[in-house]
Amino acid sequence: MHPTDRPRRLRTDGVRSLVAETDLRASDLVAPVFVDATTDERVPIESMPGHERVPVAESADRVREIRETGVEAVIVFGIPESKDDEGSRAWADDGVVQRAVRRITGQTDAYVITDVCLCEYTDHGHCGILETGAREDPRMTVDNDATLELLEWIAVSHASAGADMVAPSGMIDGMVGAIRAALDAEGYGHVPVMSYAAKYESAFYGPFRDAADGAPAFGDRRHYQMDPANAREALREVALDVEEGADVLMVKPALPYLDVVAAVRREFDHPVAAYNVSGEYAMLHAAAERGWLDLEEVAHESLLSIKRAGADLIVTYFAEDLAERL
Ligand code: PBG
What is the pTM of this model? Predict the structure, then answer.
């Protein structure tokens, strides 16, 4: 009795790549860049080996290094020189991201995406203006509708500094529609919006919050980011962003949420992005450091799996390292 079908026939070396369903290219990857207005030296980020906060003056050099690996796109995060209740440095014309974007677009040919959020700019670390009493009462949270206008100002200031694409990440209801309308009204109708459409309230963001100094000073983000228990809700979230004019739909984090990536891929025709977040990066590094995993292999397999699940593009801290190998 012999097997009638032998899938192993297509696993020999000459044919494997001919029948591969998925591949990973440097042009699929977006590299995060942290620009820090409080330093004039590069500062390594301890929980994210290989990554650093760079001063504004070195932002274009940093992006040039990334471009040399073959990665074509970056997403810029800023650490401002000061924070306040409203996060006003987020939309300042001379803010850290605005200054960095001018340099990067002036001196490199990278495609520049900016993260549009308030958590790195507010002294309380939340992603918007607080409701009255939120500092004392855990049932209170970010004032959704009052935050929308601030997000409009941020997006317009990024576009006016030269950002090629804006990426609102605050999970504020209506943020995509508000930003789309503001960009259109100000003459930035050509600037696409990549929405962090299904962003979960995840413990995997820990290292990023060290990197960008954006941890909430009290409470957490469970009242605005999604509950990890929910997948059907993600499709509602994404559908709203599509109605509001989102151009690219992001799911975040990536690996623990591949079911959501796959569902968004199935249900929508828009490009799907996945954010392979800081915790996903840090845990592979930590295991590799102990000799328990081969870093290159697990990084490649992770990103390939994210593509297989349906992502067209991946925001990842592995971008440079993997691009060099691809
Ligand atoms: C800002 C933002 C966060 C991340 C990207 N944009 C932090 C958060 O929501 O707490 C996380 C990225 C990562 O962990 O790599 N809102």
Answer: 0.96
Domain boundaries, the chain: 26-323
Q: Is 83 a catalytic residue?
A: no
3-state secondary structure of 212: helix
Q: Is 307 a catalytic residue?
A: no
Give the DSSP per-residue string, 93-147.
TTSHHHHHHHHHHHH---EEEEEE-STTTBTT--SSPBPTTTTT-TT--B-HHHH
Burial class (CB within 10 angstroms; exposed 0-12, middle 13-18, buried 19+) of 239 = middle
Crossing angle for the helix pair 96-107 and 59-68, to the nearest 10 degrees: 50
Instruction: Give the closest residue (by CA) to ligand 1 atom 10.
Output: 205
- The answer on pLDDT for 209 being more than 90 is no
Residue range 26-323, CATH number: 3.20.20.70
| 222 band by pLDDT with thresholds 50, 70 and 90 | confident
Which ligand 1 atom is the nearest neighbour of the CA of 204? Answer: 14
Report the share of the chain in percent with pLDDT over 90.
89
Over residues 245-261, the mean pLDDT reads 98
208 lines ligand 1 (CB under 6 A): yes
Atom of ligand 1 nearest to the CA of 317: 15
